[in-house]
Specification:
The chain is an alpha+beta fold. It is about 55% helix and about 20% strand. A hairpin with a 4-residue loop joins strand 12 and strand 13. Helix 1 runs antiparallel to helix 6.
């Protein structure tokens, strides 16, 4: 992820999170306010319905007063009621008065609640409704909702009680106005409000309880509710509009924040990108002026720090180059010393042998001289060739077929002279041939043999030089010395580590390099107290020839 992307990713939440919190707060406040207004509107609607019921009740009371006065002024009716005669006239009076007063129901009750006249159901004459007047009288303002029956159906009326006195008799008058769907619609304060009875009310409705009789001859007075319900669509529409505007604002803020973040990222990253490009194009040898700047801000300070670091890098690189040259010269000096010591050791052993033979007489000296003269000449030739190789230094030696058995026998002769050390030579037949630089092959064998002899405890033990032919040509140098731990072996192979006081620590390092140059491999098997076995595997001469032919074809 680039710096610009990270800056934009960090800046965008910084813009969006406060906006989201603000929008959530506004949304919550608006929702709470709308719900409060919704509840207040519902309360106003229920009060409107309550006033509507009260107004209908007052209108009903006025109409019943008119019926009572008309009945009191009707002498024929009074005479018929007083004499208990004229049943047909009395029975028809309620219907005539109901239609004249605009009521939906009208009854005149006699003694014991017997219906003497019914305007809404003429056949109810003589029916007993003993508790109707009492229920009306006991309810607040003599107001009760009654489910009445007509010849066609039943309907609910808002009923009140009045009375007609004829002589010493009192005739209750029960009249009602129908609470039909038209009345319900007129009672709603606006089209979004619905007024209905409780059994059809929806959840969340406001309730207006009213006394209720399930029939005119009901045994008990119950309660019915007028439910005032508001449609949720206006509230949902307002909430949806608020949500859409908030979402639009959030998207607009997100886009603005993203654009601002990208702009800031470009402004901030451009100097860094410039410093990066200048750093990539920096010439370590000539870093002067690579980070020159006139800025005084943090970017300018960073450029100054980078300029200082490049100066230190230049100085450090020069110091490192000098140290490398000194180290290379030291490594070369130690390697020359090691190789010369390996060449001089056989000569020293020969001279010691000659000294011992001279003490025994001229005849013995002549015999030993003739026997060991070849060793001295071979060592001198080795030192002369070694000097020539170091003179060429970087020019590699010339590989040629070499008799591995002859090379091992020469090394055994150079090791001879110490009676405390047993030199065993085990040669493969036929003699294996390897393709290598003869001088390099002698250096490999002499180094391994010299290390094996010097590894013997107290200078006593056996050193075995073994060759093996076949598919894999091998040279093995085995000693019965103290052996090495894995850590000592790793350090010995790395170089400059020796367990001998005067050792250079380069023997195994030189061997591994020379074996690698010849295309071979070095394997070491050793353990503390168990001696060491060094195995050099050379490629078959056929493989070497094939590789050489391919190289020549090129």
């Amino acid at each position: 992820m680039t710096f610009r992307t990270r800056l934009a990713a960090a800046f965008l939440p910084a813009v969006l999170i406060p906006l989201v919190v603000f929008g959530w707060g506004v949304r919550r406040a608006v929702s709470s306010r709308l719900e409060a207004l919704f509840d207040a509107r519902a309360d106003a609607a229920i009060e409107h319905v309550r006033a509507r019921v009260a107004g209908t009740s007052a209108d009903l009371a006025r109409r019943l007063t008119g019926v009572r006065r008309a009945a009191g002024a009707d002498l024929h009716l009074r005479a018929a009621l007083a004499a208990d005669s004229g049943a047909d006239y009395v029975r028809d009076f309620a219907g005539t008065a109901m239609r004249a007063s605009g009521l939906a129901s009208l009854q005149i009750l006699g003694a014991g609640g017997t219906v003497v006249s019914s305007g809404h159901f003429r056949n109810a004459y003589g029916w007993a409704e003993p508790r109707l007047a009492a229920y009306l009288a006991a309810s607040p303002e003599s107001l009760v909702l009654i489910r009445v029956r007509s010849a066609e159906s039943t309907f609910v009326t808002l009923a009140r009680l009045d009375s007609l006195r004829v002589g010493d008799r009192v005739y209750p008058i029960v009249g009602g106005i129908s609470l039909d769907s038209e009345w319900m619609a007129r009672s709603a304060p606006d089209p979004d409000v619905t007024v209905a009875f409780g059994d059809s009310a929806r959840a969340g409705a406001h309730i207006l309880p009213l006394p209720f009789l399930t029939s005119e001859d009901a045994d008990s007075l119950g309660t019915v509710s007028l439910a005032v319900t508001q449609s949720p669509q206006p509230l949902a529409a307002i909430s949806g509009s608020v949500d859409r505007w908030l979402l639009a604002g959030l998207v607009a803020a997100a886009l603005t924040g993203l654009a601002l973040a990208l702009w800031l990222a470009v402004r901030l990253s451009r100097p860094l990108a410039d410093l990066t490009a200048r750093a990539e194009a920096l010439d370590p040898g000539h870093p002067e002026g690579a980070f020159d700047t006139v800025r005084t801000d943090e970017i300018g300070k960073l450029a100054v720090v980078l300029s200082t670091m490049t100066g230190r890098l230049r100085d450090g690189a020069e110091v490192a180059r000098r140290a490398e040259r000194r180290a290379a010269l030291g490594d070369l000096a130690r390697q020359v010393n090691h190789d010369i010591r390996n060449g001089l050791t056989p000569i020293r052993n020969v001279f010691r042998h000659w000294t011992d033979a001279a003490s025994e007489g001229p005849t013995e000296l002549a015999r030993v001289f003739a026997e060991r003269r070849g060793t001295v000449e071979s060592s001198v030739a080795y030192l002369h060739a070694l000097a020539g190789e170091y003179a060429r230094l970087a020019v590699p030696g010339v590989a040629e077929p070499c008799d591995l058995n002859a090379a091992v026998q020469g090394a055994a002769q150079r090791l001879a002279g110490d009676e405390a050390v047993t030199i065993r030579v085990e040669l493969a037949e036929p003699a294996p041939v390897v393709r290598a630089d003869p001088l390099a092959l002698r250096r490999v064998i002499d180094n391994l043999a010299s290390n094996a002899r010097e590894a013997l405890r107290n200078g006593r033990g056996t050193v075995t030089l073994r060759t093996r032919g076949g598919d894999h040509v091998c040279l093995q140098v085995i000693d019965t010395g103290a052996g090495m731990s894995p850590a000592d072996l790793e350090r010995a192979l790395a170089g400059f580590h020796s367990t001998k006081p005067a050792g250079s620590g380069l023997g195994l390092t030189i061997v591994r390099r020379l074996v690698g140059d010849a295309g071979g491999a070095l394997r070491v098997d050793t353990a503390p107290g168990a001696g060491s076995s060094f195995t050099v595997e050379f490629p078959r001469i056929e493989c070497v020839r094939a590789a050489g032919e391919k190289e020549g074809d090129r």
